[in-house]
Amino acid sequence: MSTPWRATVLGSQVAELLRRPGRFAATGLSLLIAAFVVFGTVMAQQIITATVVEKFRGTPEAVSLVVTPGDGEDIGEDRLREILKTPGVAEAVGRLDGGSPLDGSAVERYLALSADPGTGALAEVRLVEGTYPSGPGRLAVDTRAAREYGLAPGSSLTLLQPESDGEGTRRVTVEVSGIVRSTVTDDTGPTGYAPGPRIGELLGVPGYSRIDIRTDTASGSVDPAERIRQAVPGAQVRSGDEVREEEAREAVAEAKDTLELVTVFLAVAVGAAVLVATSTFRIVFARRVSQLALLRAIGATPRRLAAALVAEGAVVGLLAGATGVLAAWGCGRLVPPVAGRFGYDLSVPSHLPLTEAALTVLGTGLLAVLAVLAPSLSASRVSPLQALRSAASGEGAAGGTGRTLLGLLCAAGAAFLARQQYGGLPQPGDTEYDRFAALTVVVLSGGLAFLALIALGPRLVRPVLAAVAVPLRRTGAAGRLAVAGVGGAPGRAASVSVVVALGVCLVGSTLTCLASLHAYERYRQAVEAPADFHLYPRDSETLDRSLAADLASHPELADVTAFRTAEVVEDSRSATLSDLDLGTVGSGVGLTARTGSLDHLEPGHVVVDADHAHRLGVRAGDRVTLTFEDRPVELTVAATLPGAGPYGGNFFVPAADLTRMGAGAAPTTVTANASQDDARGRIRAQRAITDTLTGPERGDGRVIAEDSTAQAGESDDLRTMATTVIMVLGLTVLVAVAGVATTASLTVVERKREFGLLRALGLSGAAVHRMVTVECALYGVLGGVLGLALGLPYSWLVVRVAETSAPFSVPAGELAAVFTALVLVTAAAGTVPALRASRTSPTVAVARAD
Description:
Helix content: 55-70%
Low-confidence stretches: 1-7, 390-398, 703-713
Structural class: alpha+beta
Distance between the termini: 33 Å
Radius of gyration: 35 Å
Number of strands: 25
Mean pLDDT: 76
Shape: globular
């Protein structure tokens, strides 16, 4: 008896699929998008890992063996020749790194030196211009050195090398023979390259710190590793793959924060996928109550009905999961080349992560089963008569007491975790803080807050709608009907708006966090490299009093600033007091205040860096006492900095105050910028400084702009992180838009009778179209308001956890653009359903609901 009933239930499911394929397409699409989002995030993680490994790799793929000395002594040229004679060795090159200051400028310049063959499979550089050096007295430089030092083939450089006895320096003049580009990671700054023997001569080093070997694959079973160990006693011989794996592990460890952030977004993506799939299933099954009731009426048992529905969900889930995984994998392979066209250097993952793919497919199937389980059990347990009445009655109440209590409980849990995390935020100088654990707690708190939003959503729709929909009620019948349609079905509106809220929350939070981190990056550059040139005393404690004026007279220089520093004591500790005008640092861009303002520093006031402000427990408006030459000086805190002060300063006062304390009039530091912000401009500025510093008593200097360029790698890391996060958020926004489109399609199909009645009452097809479009736009408005209200507080908490010194920066313009764009996109998502609704015939719609 059970078999016929099973066949009847399954047959009804097949018949329903054939009669209304749109419903099944909606659920299948939601699951496909869920799988696409989850595996797309996995692919994003793979892309960022591959990019990091590629960026930090230091061993060419052609290297088969790596030999390093085991006894601390370098491997000499004679040992290298013995290695080359070893059977099975096709090529071997010696690696040697060092560096040298450059002569010819009063401003300190430095050139790193690295041994490289320049050609062949083991070369780490590729020639861009000129020729690679093949004899003594010649050197190739990388593009960075050529750009910063104004070098070209034929230029000359004078290297300052220590004498062999360690006393004094010798000048070695070399000719630049060519310009090269490094194919591996190069964080050493401007670099010169030449074959190993030439670099050894320049550095005065007789051997190599490493030998890279390419073996001959045609040698068959010959293994040269053991013979190399015999030729170089005590040497360590490792395979190239082993070395590259070690470099990859170190690279991943270096990018730990970035990868942890992607892991956090993976968890968020899974939550988004579950939300969309569950929401779509709930809407679909709520509309199928009448069919389920008829099955109950003809004798289907609740268990058979639930089993058939669960089987349906599992099949749809597995198929959609497999399709979503394949689609995400294909997009992941396309992202790096597309990103490359927009200036983002991303690497293609080397392989398909099969384990993650299988887990995603199985997880999608399980998600479908879990999503269908609750509505199927509810539908199977309801009596046939009650089910038919429910189907006819439409939307129920906004939410029961149990749901409200659950929402309040989740909100309380989120507030408790957020309060705990706020109380445990890291302080300046705290190096033991576990940021990943803290971010995990923040994500958990945000998850609970979002669950609270889901549970309380139906009760929040009408109050929020009443606030944002006032103008629509004055736009005519279509606007009023749209507001009434959304407010009349708060459960449905909440289901759609919550998905949009998730997208807005994530986009808004990420843009805010990135804006804050970018502001922090600008602050760091303003502190660590505030000017192109930094001139300091060479043989005395102060500089020539006329030096700043002399430098300012050169048109090649701009923003010439002189200031003084002095040592003070605060709370029995030594600190640096400076009269540097913080408004002149970085042309006033980048430096911000944690408390107070940096706009104008009045007499008797002081600006305090973050570390000392935290240690003293002061903020703007408080008083501090400093001791200068055994005399206490009481000052009012005008502002506190979010991090360190520029040029190592801890306290900053007006120049008149420092003079009254008894400091001398001569400056201790002079800074200047190149008037033309490019390599040629800095070279001309260096020459102007060299011409001005005619005597040792006038000071010495160094190029701070080089330090700023060295920070480009860190900025690139932030850029890569931003690219990865934006990719993940693009998937989440896709979820939101698809959720609106599928829900709008379902609701339009089920509301044909309503649209028919409106047409019969005289509402035009264009008005019906506007009404449905405005309803979908209202979903975007509701989601945008709820998402920003939830996202901005958590953005502040994430910024404080990620970098306590980062100023919180809200990109109002970008958030407004995102809000507007999402409202337009959600409105566009309802265009097709609105068109279907506008074409509804009044007579047909009144005659039949379907």
